[in-house]
């Protein structure tokens, strides 16, 4: 399932060049992923109850357009691939006119919270990824 989260660029997110600092884009993407988990009924405590946690192992982020203070940005998150112990989400940060400000692919691995070792993606999480 694709999810959409709207954010407003705050003054503390602006760098010396007068636009959103590059590191903030990574944070916006994280907020979008958290929204995806929540909308799929998979908050942190639910994953823990399944004996799993997810960790980000790769972020491939392309910066396309600058964003400025006060802009309303839309973070779109959708699953694109399911592996045995990992899954991939595609994300976009869109400007108010629909232009893509940034796009990313993010690979996450499921781990056993006790051993901290990779584990098979739990069925409930796998269904959410496959529902794309």
Quick recap of the structure?
Keywords: Hydrolase. This protein has 132 residues and is of the alpha+beta class. It has 3 helices and 5 strands, in the order βααββββα.
Describe the structure.
- This protein has a single domain (3-130), classed as Roll (Thiol Ester Dehydrase, Chain A).
- It has 3 helices and 5 strands, in the order E-H-H-E-E-E-E-H.
- The protein has helices spanning 22-39, 44-49, 123-130; strands at 3-8, 53-63, 72-82, 86-94, 100-111.
- The chain has a 5-stranded antiparallel beta sheet with strand order 1-3-4-5-2.
- The protein is elongated.
- 22% of the residues are buried.
- The model has no long low-confidence stretch (mean pLDDT 97).
Question: What ranges have pLDDT less than 50 throughout 5 or more consecutive residues?
Answer: none
Per the CATH scheme, the topology name is Thiol Ester Dehydrase, Chain A
Q: Could you spell the SSE succession in H and E letters?
A: EHHEEEEH
Could you say what the CATH architecture is?
Answer: Roll
The average pLDDT score comes to 97
Helices, by number, come to: 3
| Helix/strand structural class | alpha+beta
Shape: elongated
Query: What is the CATH homology-level superfamily?
Result: Hotdog Thioesterase
How many discrete domains?
Answer: 1
Radius of gyration, whole Å: 16 Å
Q: Within the largest sheet, what's the order of strands? A: 1-3-4-5-2
Helix percent band? 10-25%
Reported for the largest beta sheet, the result is:
5 strands, antiparallel
CATH class: Alpha Beta
Number of strands: 5
Give the end-to-end Cα distance, rounded to a whole number of Å: 5 Å
GO molecular function, one term: fatty acyl-CoA hydrolase activity
Organism: Paludisphaera borealis
Keywords: Hydrolase
Protein name: Long-chain acyl-CoA thioesterase FadM
